[in-house]
Design a protein that fits this description.
It is built from 18 helices and two strands. With 460 residues, it is mostly helical.
Length: 460
């Protein structure tokens, strides 16, 4: 029998799937939006993530097949909606992988003083990264598990060490500049976060929430895990709790040491600009590299398996289910690489635009999965679920209802106009064509084209 991931490896995979680019790249933008309320924003984002994570974990009790949101939706609502969620979720995961790949390539180019805005340099670096990830996966689950665990321990170690060093600087050496954030102003001359309305809070929470995303993909590879119906519901919430403590600690320390540098930094690894000590800066940059590489390792495991899972159930061509002798879905992997490269290239590797699309694209499953778990709880599913599941009113009904309510509020208050428009060279507000096309293709054209293919195939 081939090696499968045990409980602690699943916890580490979850941490590795979440801690990546967000905490190193997004704190400055979150603080710029919310000012001294940033820690509260991260706390709200952590609560929202935990509620969603518990919901996804509870769904894993009922459906142990790979595919996560796709498998849950198919079991709850049948083939058609399951098919749509599967395709759109796959596109979202590919975009997310594009974000993570772009970040690690740009960081490496910056460290070696190469032009990290050159499309040719980034594209070449992207291909090299994907080749390395393919080699790791080709070696089998056992080698993947070792590399995944080591990269997770490395990134967590770097962040925890930074928190400890920062704690010493702030509370023992007295370098506490937290109050200075109230003197930093935005473009209008107002103190950061002084005029936060409900929409402002929502936008800041979503910006912070990006650093917590990734938990929804962990169950995609459940077929390669030991007792997923038992281990996933315990592993995912545990990992989220650990991550929340690390995030709030690192952001709090950064705000206390040098909030202005955090907000105004133009570096790829903005967090490093907070510290003037070269050793600490280098440690953060190295930690960021390990973190970014680690989350790409995690993405290389679960993203192709979404497509593979759909192929196994006959919803996309069966060729995508083809595996090597070591259990690696090679065709799905190569297809995923192509999409993960093309979409960021279409956005000219603009991190801001890609992150926006990546964050928004996840909300389809954040609406569908809570409804699915409620249907499982009441026995209203339309597909196959596991028998003799121990139901829990809190995790299978109340928390999914809260998750659904929070998601709807965030979607309603989201600044849609601001994210799908941009300012041109003349200062005029124009449509963000790339963002609109990416959403239309990923959420309308591709799903319905594949649905048409499936109907034609079934008739044949």
């Amino acid at each position: 029998m081939k090696k499968k991931l045990g409980f602690y490896s699943i916890v580490l995979l979850t941490i590795n799937s979440i801690i990546g680019t967000g905490i190193f790249l997004s704190p400055g933008s979150v603080v710029a939006q919310s000012g001294d309320k940033a820690l509260v924003v991260y706390l709200f984002a952590a609560i929202f993530s935990t509620v969603l994570a518990v919901t996804f974990a509870a769904a894993a009790k009922y459906v142990s097949k790979g595919g996560a949101a796709y498998a849950y939706t198919k079991a709850a609502f049948g083939d058609n909606l399951g098919y749509y969620v599967g395709i759109t979720r796959y596109v979202a995961a590919c975009i997310a992988w594009g974000v993570m790949g772009t970040a690690v390539v740009k960081t490496v180019l910056k460290i070696f003083n190469l032009n990290n805005e050159s499309l040719s340099n980034i594209a070449m670096g992207f291909l090299v990264l994907m080749f390395v990830l393919m080699v790791i996966n080709l070696m089998g689950t056992k080698v993947f598990e070792i590399i995944n665990n080591l990269s997770t321990i490395g990134k967590v170690g770097a962040l925890v060490t930074t928190i400890i060093v920062g704690f010493v600087m702030v509370f023992i050496m007295g370098e506490n500049n937290f109050s200075a954030i109230k003197t930093i102003t935005d473009k209008s001359g107002q103190a950061l976060g002084s005029n936060l309305d409900l929409t402002g809070w929502v936008m800041a929470i979503i910006a912070a929430f990006y650093a917590f995303t990734g938990f929804e993909s962990v169950a995609s590879g459940s077929e390669d895990m030991e007792e997923p119906e038992k281990n996933l519901p315990r592993a995912i919430p545990l990992a989220i709790g650990i991550i929340a403590l690390i995030y709030i600690g690192i952001v709090g320390i950064a705000m206390a040491i040098n909030p202005q540098a955090l907000v105004e930094s133009k570096e790829v690894v903005a967090l490093a600009d907070v510290f003037s000590n070269k050793i600490i800066r280098n440690m953060i940059i190295i930690g960021a590299l390990i973190s970014m590489f680690g989350i790409n390792v995690a993405a290389s495991f679960h993203t192709p398996r979404i497509l593979e899972s759909m192929a196994k159930q006959g919803q996309v061509p069966h060729v995508f289910a083809k595996r090597t002798s070591n259990g690696f879905p090679i065709v799905s992997f190569l297809t995923t690489i192509a999409i993960a490269v093309v979409i960021p290239l279409a956005f000219k590797f603009d991190m801001t635009n890609i992150i926006i699309i990546s964050s928004i694209s996840r909300f389809v499953q954040f609406v569908i999965v809570p409804i699915a778990i409620i249907m499982f709880y009441y026995g209203k599913e339309r597909g196959q679920v596991l028998e003799n599941v121990k139901k829990n009113t809190l995790t299978d009904l109340i928390i999914p209802l809260i998750a659904l309510g929070l998601t709807i509020v965030l979607l309603y208050q989201f600044n849609w106009k601001g994210q799908f428009t941009m300012t041109n060279e003349n200062g005029d507000l124009v449509a963000n064509t790339f963002a609109i096309i990416a959403m239309v293709v990923g959420y309308v054209v591709l799903p319905f084209a594949l649905m048409a293919w499936k109907k034609i195939k079934n008739r044949g």
